[in-house]
Design brief:
Blueprint: H1 2-20, H2 29-41, H3 47-68, E1 75-76, H4 78-97, H5 104-130, E2 138-145, E3 150-157, E4 164-173, E5 178-181, E6 195-202, E7 214-219, E8 223-226, E9 235-242, E10 248-259, H6 280-336
Parallel strand pairs: 4-10
Antiparallel strand pairs: 1-2, 2-3, 5-8, 6-7, 6-9, 9-10
Length: 338
């Protein structure tokens, strides 16, 4: 009975579950070790059951390798593989903690069927969004080949003109600033060291592939800022992204127009009203009158000062004479007393 049950399980696994799984789980050492640890820790398994589980798992690995090329050309990136691996590991451990409803072989088929859904889900997302995400330019994407289990670079060439990522129109006022940024989200997937090369063609409004550009800056930052713009700085700006081997990954153009600040008319300098005409004779008369007044005031000041000095002198003499008289009278009084 056990042999018949195992035969049914084996046929179901080969016909239904395994062909539907398209992934690189056979390349993941963490998954292999998890399967091996499971078999070695199941002490109640007979030797035959252990051998049967090893055959099922090994056959699954072979089937994975055969069917992986039917989905996403057998390619997968590290992030997608890691997500599928961690979710499958979690489901695998949770499944074997639950009470068993059949043989070990049958339980293995059920967890592999659940693994098929997990793997298909992650691979569909990778093919739709993660594989060759560049809509322009050239990308060497790091992926794993599910047939060889080796990582390599997959060439992602867009359908647009080679490496051209568009032309952007920019308008800024004189004295202000302009920001040039040629970063694209898929630039994060560029392998190794990469640099942005900025150059420009002064005063131009169009360009061709044969035009010569002046080098501005080479930087790891995708954006540059032009401050205190002048009208002479308008023109065509060119941004290249080069990888560590000097290969052009993408190129972007910016057509910058700098609008001049309108000049204000010259300011009118206000003129003072002309002074009224004054006869010279009147001016001389006024001057003589002022001199006479000042002379009188000076004489009065001197006369007043002399009067004050005389008054003070007389007062001091009277005071001294009174003090002398008091002193003499005091001496007489002392002599006349017995």
């Amino acid at each position: 009975m056990a042999a018949v049950q195992f035969s049914v399980c084996w046929l179901f696994l080969c016909a239904c579950v395994i062909p539907g799984v398209r992934s690189c789980l056979q390349c993941d050492l963490a998954i292999r070790h998890m399967h091996e640890d499971f078999i070695s820790t199941k002490h109640k398994l007979t030797v035959q059951e252990q051998m049967d589980l090893v055959k099922i798992i090994n056959h699954a690995y072979v089937t994975y390798q055969e069917t992986s090329t039917q989905f996403s050309s057998g390619l997968i990136d590290f992030t997608t593989l890691y997500r599928a691996q961690t979710e499958y590991q979690s489901e695998f451990r949770r499944h074997w903690k639950e009470p068993s409803t059949g043989s070990v072989q049958w339980d293995m088929i059920k967890i592999l069927e659940k693994g098929k859904k997990i793997l298909n889900k992650h691979l569909e997302v990778f093919v739709a969004e993660g594989l060759c995400p560049n809509e322009c330019g050239l990308l060497f994407q790091s992926v794993m080949n599910c047939s060889s289990c080796q990582y390599g670079l997959h060439i992602c060439q867009s359908d647009t003109p080679p490496k051209d990522c568009g032309v952007h129109q920019l308008v800024a006022s004189e004295g202000k600033q302009a920001v040039l940024d040629c970063f694209l989200p898929w630039h994060r997937l560029v392998v190794g060291h990469a640099e942005y090369h900025y150059s420009w063609k002064p005063g131009a409004t169009n360009f061709t592939a044969e035009d010569e550009f002046e080098v501005l800056v080479v930087t790891q930052d995708s954006r540059i800022v032009l401050n205190q713009l002048r009208v002479s700085e308008q023109g065509v700006y060119h941004c290249f992204l080069l990888d560590q081997h000097g290969t052009t990954i993408s190129q972007t153009h910016f057509l910058l127009t700098v609008t001049p600040v309108p000049t204000s008319p010259p300011r009118q300098i206000p003129t003072l009203p002309s002074l009224p005409h004054v006869k010279v004779s009147h001016v001389r008369l006024h001057t003589n009158t002022l001199i006479i007044i000042l002379s009188l005031l000076t004489s009065l000041s001197i006369t007043g000062s002399m009067a004050i000095i005389l008054y003070v002198g007389m007062t001091v003499r009277r005071q001294k004479k009174g003090e002398a008289e008091e002193s003499r009278q005091d001496r007489l009084n002392r002599h006349s007393s017995p």
